[in-house]
């Protein structure tokens, strides 16, 4: 038994080593950085320990803007993308004709490069000297006046951002939900049909509860993913996010480290830990709700 | 409610697209099930029995033919308008709902004038639950129940809306042997108490024989024989029915008739008056053997199995079409093989003769 244990640890060693060096050590390092006041990157010195870094970050208007942006993004995109993905999955599940084709189409964004997709969104929304962008053309045709979605008002930029995020996260959700729907025993539907259950009632009373574990999984991972938004924002609004007023928390962390105003690992660490606390809290709340509302087999 | 099936046929397009012939799942099924009877559809898997049940239920549309409940033509009606209760093989109990909610489910589907008040619904659910004796389990979830209890809940859910016809698909196949015995008695009792015309599907002949008023034996979409269980067992119309009914199964030999005498191998075993000389297939029920020294049929003894109630003799015979034959004799008898051989006399009533070519029974 003892010998076996030693063997097992030996086998685990490579993985543990990597996890330790690249995951556990940085995690603790971030915690230490975040409480080191006046840390100097060049001389690797600091004045003292305390919570000043947190206080600074929480007062920094750029951080507050990033916090606001991130929250809006999360609150809009998670429910909307999950809801639309559910509708599309139910649709996909109930058609026969061209089912595979549509499944492929809906899955395309998942395998498309983020930056390439960002470019497509630029073409759709960006105002250039030559064109107003595709969406503005449509707005014109409908009799509206053009809006600058990339450098214009905040709500316009946020709309583009949300649309983009929803579009990017959808394929994975559709993939998960279609397989969840397909795995529901068809006997349930037959039984419901024999008992004369209306389609809407079948959906709300049978289908939804049966796939609720998967929906919850998607909501939790969706929240976490949306809180970590960064690359998508860069793809559309470029790297100077603070100027654009479209920064996110991860973007703020990056700027604090490497941006034009960067070189402050302590502030970055504090911001990262604040994000960690937020994600942890939301996930705990989610899990509590899950316990009460989700059926598990 | 009597059920009438008229020329009921179901064809599926062949999955293999190169073959254009349709697959015929059920071929020209004609049957009238009298009101209040319990009928078992029996056959090997793929014989079309479940398809037939689904057509009666309305989950599948017949390709041609008609289905009547009483005088009503229900062929074109969707299942919810037929007044059928169905118990699925998997039970299909909604796992996220309690037993009570499961039983209430069909009642809650009703709209308008048909809809009962909450109290009436609960009362109906209570009645159905007490009929199948699950009153004490109403607040449990299906996963907290045993297989037999789940089965009862499924029956209660099917009965709560007072269906005209109750359909059960392989109702006992998910239960262990002891529960199976108990549950089939239970199904019989419930059916008697409610008087609802009931059709159930099974591949287990013992199950079908033990509780049915009549059984329908099917093979490859074609009805082979319909009748009371004992009649079908005693008077099978062909070799398939004879082989399908009975455990242990009937023993089949190659034989021939010469001058009104039946020969198995070289041994003359039995007189068969008025039958012309021909090659035949001989079926002998396991209980058709009588142990006798210098009997007419001698076989090489392989094993003697004692079950307590009776003794079964496993033996081989060169003319037997299966590797071994099995004879069941009373446990009092002493099996005394001589030089590894046993010999039997045959009980004429338990010997069936079939045409070698058509497999139809000739005696």
Fold and architecture overview:
The complex is a heterodimer of chains A (297) and B (363). Helices cover 76% and strands 1% of the residues of chain A. Chain A has helices at residues 2-35, 52-59, 61-94, 99-111, 114-125, 134-141, 154-182, 186-194, 199-227, 231-237, 241-244, 249-258, 265-293; strands at residues 36-37, 48-49. The model of chain A has no long low-confidence stretch (mean pLDDT 84). Chain B has 8 helices and 20 strands. With 363 residues, chain B is of the alpha+beta class. Chain B has helices at 49-57, 99-108, 118-131, 147-159, 177-194, 205-211, 229-234, 239-244; strands at 3-12, 23-33, 38-42, 64-69, 72-73, 84-87, 165-169, 197-202, 214-219, 222-227, 251-258, 261-264, 267-271, 278-284, 289-291, 297-306, 310-316, 325-330, 341-346, 351-355. Chain B has a 6-stranded mixed β-sheet with strand order 6-7-8-3-9-10, sandwiched between helices. Chain B has a 5-stranded antiparallel β-sheet with strand order 13-12-11-14-20. Classes of the chains: A mainly alpha (297), B alpha+beta (363). Chains A and B meet through helix 8 and helix 9 of A and strand 6 of B.
In short:
The complex is a heterodimer of chains A (297) and B (363). Chain A has 297 residues and is mainly alpha-helical.
Features:
heterodimer; A: 297 residues; mainly alpha; MetI-like fold; two-stranded antiparallel sheet; 13 helices; 76% helix; globular; B: 363 residues; alpha+beta; Rossmann fold; 2 domains; six-stranded mixed β-sheet; five-stranded antiparallel β-sheet; 8 helices; 34% strand
Structural class of chain A: mainly alpha
Q: Mind telling me which CATH architecture of chain A this is?
A: Orthogonal Bundle
Count every beta strand of chain A, where a strand is a DSSP E run of 2 or more residues. Answer: 2
Mean pLDDT of chain A: 84
Biggest beta-sheet profile of chain A:
2 strands, antiparallel
Average pLDDT rating of chain B: 83
CATH superfamily of the largest domain in chain B: P-loop containing nucleotide triphosphate hydrolases
Give the overall form of chain B. elongated
């Amino acid at each position: 038994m003892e010998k076996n244990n030693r063997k097992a640890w030996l086998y685990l060693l490579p993985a543990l080593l990597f996890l330790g060096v690249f995951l556990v050590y940085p995690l603790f390092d971030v915690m230490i950085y975040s409480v080191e006041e006046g840390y100097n990157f060049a001389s690797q010195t600091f004045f003292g320990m305390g919570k000043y870094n947190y206080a600074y970050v929480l007062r920094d208007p750029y951080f507050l803007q990033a916090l606001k942006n991130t929250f809006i993004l999360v609150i809009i995109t998670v429910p909307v993308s999950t809801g639309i993905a559910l509708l599309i999955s139910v649709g996909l599940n109930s058609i026969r004709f061209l089912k595979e084709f549509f499944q492929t189409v809906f899955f395309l964004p998942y395998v498309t490069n983020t930056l390439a997709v960002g470019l497509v969104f630029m073409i759709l929304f960006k105002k250039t000297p030559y064109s107003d962008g595709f969406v503005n053309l449509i707005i014109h045709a409908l009799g509206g006046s053009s809006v600058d979605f990339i450098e214009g008002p905040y709500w316009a930029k946020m709309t583009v951002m949300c649309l983009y995020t929803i579009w990017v996260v959808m394929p994975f959700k559709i993939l998960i939900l279609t397989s969840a729907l397909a795995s529901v025993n068809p006997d349930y539907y037959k039984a419901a049909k024999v008992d004369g259950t209306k389609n809407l009632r079948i959906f709300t009373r049978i289908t939804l509860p049966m796939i609720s574990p998967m929906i919850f999984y998607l909501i939790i991972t969706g929240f976490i993913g949306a809180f970590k938004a960064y690359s998508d924002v860069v793809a559309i609004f470029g790297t100077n996010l603070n100027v654009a007023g479209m920064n996110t928390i991860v973007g703020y962390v990056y700027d604090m480290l490497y941006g034009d105003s960067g070189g402050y690992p302590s502030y970055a660490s504090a911001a990262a830990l604040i994000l960690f606390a937020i994600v942890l809290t939301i996930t705990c709340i989610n899990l509590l709700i899950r316990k009460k509302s989700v059926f598990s087999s | 409610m009597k059920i009438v099936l008229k020329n009921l046929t179901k064809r599926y397009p062949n999955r293999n697209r190169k073959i254009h012939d349709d697959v015929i799942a059920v071929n020209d099924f004609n049957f009238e099930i009298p009101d209040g009877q319990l009928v078992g559809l029996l056959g090997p898997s793929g014989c079309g029995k479940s398809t037939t049940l689904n057509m009666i239920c309305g989950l599948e549309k017949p390709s041609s033919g008609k289905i009547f409940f009483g005088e009503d033509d229900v062929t074109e009606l969707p299942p919810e308008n037929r007044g059928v209760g169905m118990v699925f093989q998997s039970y299909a109990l909604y796992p996220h709902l309690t037993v009570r909610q499961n039983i209430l489910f069909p009642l809650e589907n009703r709209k308008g004038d048909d809809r009962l008040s909450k109290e009436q619904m609960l009362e109906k659910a209570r009645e159905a639950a007490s009929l199948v004796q699950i009153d004490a389990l109403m607040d449990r979830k299906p996963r907290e129940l045993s297989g037999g209890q789940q089965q009862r809940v499924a029956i209660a859910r099917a009965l709560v809306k007072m269906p005209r016809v109750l359909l059960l698909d392989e109702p006992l196949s998910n239960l262990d042997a002891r529960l199976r015995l108990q549950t089939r008695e239970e199904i019989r009792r419930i059916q008697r108490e409610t008087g609802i015309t009931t059709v159930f599907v099974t591949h287990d002949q013992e199950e079908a024989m033990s509780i049915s008023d009549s059984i329908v034996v099917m093979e490859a979409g074609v009805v082979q024989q319909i009748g009371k269980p004992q009649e079908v067992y005693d008077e099978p119309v062909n070799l398939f029915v004879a082989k399908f009914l009975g455990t242990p199964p009937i023993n089949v030999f190659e034989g021939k008739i010469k001058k009104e005498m039946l020969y198995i191998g070289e041994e003359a075993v039995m007189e068969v008056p008025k039958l012309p000389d021909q090659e035949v297939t001989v079926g002998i029920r396991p209980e058709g053997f009588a142990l006798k020294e210098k009997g007419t049929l001698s076989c090489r003894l392989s094993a003697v199995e004692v079950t307590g109630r009776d003794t079964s003799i496993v033996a081989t015979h060169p003319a037997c079409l299966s590797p071994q034959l099995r004879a069941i004799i009373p446990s009092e008898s002493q099996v005394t093989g001589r030089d590894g051989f046993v010999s039997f006399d045959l009980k004429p009533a338990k010997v069936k003769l079939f045409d070698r070519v058509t497999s139809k029974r000739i005696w």
